Amino acid sequence: MAAQPSPTPSPTLASDDPYRFDDLRALYINCTLKPSPQQSHTQGLIDKSRAIMDERGVATDVVRAVDHDLAPGVYPDMTEHGFTTDAWPALYEQVMAADILVLAGPIWLGDNSSVTKQVVERLYSCSGLLNSKGQYAYYGRVGGCLITGNEDGVKHCAMNVLYSLQHLGYTIPPQADAGWIGPAGPGPSYLDPGSGGPENDFTNRNTTFMTWNLMHMAAMLKRAEGIPPHGNQRSEWDAGCRLDAPNPDYR
User: Fold this and answer.
1) Which of 9, 52, 198, 215 lies at a 20 to 30 A Cα distance from 22?
2) Pairing relation of β-strands 100-108 and 142-148?
3) CA atoms within 13 A on the CB side of 144
4) Domain NADPH-dependent FMN reductase-like: where (predicted)?
5) Where are the alpha helices (DSSP H) in 6-113?
6) Which of 62, 59, 47 is closest to 20 using CA atoms?
7) Backbone angles phi, psi at 237, to 5 degrees
8) What share of the chain is helix, strand, coil (3-state, %, to 5)?
9) How much is the pLDDT for 213?
10) pTM of this prediction?
């Protein structure tokens, strides 16, 4: 299934509004286990965050990962390693076109879904690639996560996702996660009638704060042209420049 582009931005904000972000693009990857067009409770929470970004001029896209034939593996293109097809190279282009990446998914057995883990694995497969400054490719981009479920595990899942993203090079702003689990399960899911999920003030507050912090941080990085390329260039390290670190003694 193709990515879902954002609707036409609202014209209600003045062009001189200091909190418009028309130069930013965000990608939400929905890691539900359900293929389209099945209802995704995770998508319900994504929609809350996405509406804020759309209103503020961010161009947003949503991809449901399970709709794509992503091969398992830790190389950028797994068709070069025995698989017949691999949709990751095309999805990676969307990832690299986005200033903001939000991974969103459900909790199963207290942990992230298998799809979430596969997406993180494929992000990792490209983490050794470099940008034009010789830094790792994901430098200068911002990451966050949304978690849904009807059992404990929101913070555990968020910790895993946010650690993974920062380790790969993403910048993680304050309050970069939000989630909803309702009463410790089994119980209603986010969009089930009477669940209280869409009206939950705690979840709505955290989702709002996360969304604004992602936009603020992405805008700061974009205006600054990313993370300064000093002391963090893999290309320079490989060339022998140790950037104030002791040079290795090869004797």
Assistant:
1) 198
2) parallel
3) 30
4) 29-175
5) 41-55, 88-97
6) 59
7) -60, -45
8) 35, 15, 50
9) 98
10) 0.90
Question: pLDDT for 71-114, tens place per residue?
Answer: 999 999 999 999 999 999 999 999 999 999 999 999 999 999 99
Residue 105 has phi, psi (to 5 degrees) of -165, 175
For residue 67, pLDDT beyond 60: yes
Alpha carbon distance 121, 127 (integer Å): 10
In single-letter form, the type of residue at position 80 comes to E
Decide: helix, strand or coil at residue 110.
coil
Angstrom distance (rounded) from CA 134 to CA 22: 27
The values of phi and psi at residue 64, to 5°, are -95, 105
* CA–CA gap between residue 111 and residue 156 (Å, rounded): 7
How far is 42 from 179, CA to CA, in rounded Å? Answer: 9
Q: How far is CA 246 from its chain centroid?
A: 35
pLDDT of residue 185: 67
pLDDT of residue 152: 86
For 46, counting Cβ atoms within 10 Å of its Cβ (0-12 exposed, 13-18 middle, 19+ buried), the class is buried
**Separation between Cα atoms, residue 100 and residue 197, nearest integer Å:** 25
CB 89 within 8 A of CB 43: no
Which residues lie across from 102 on neighbouring strands? 28, 144
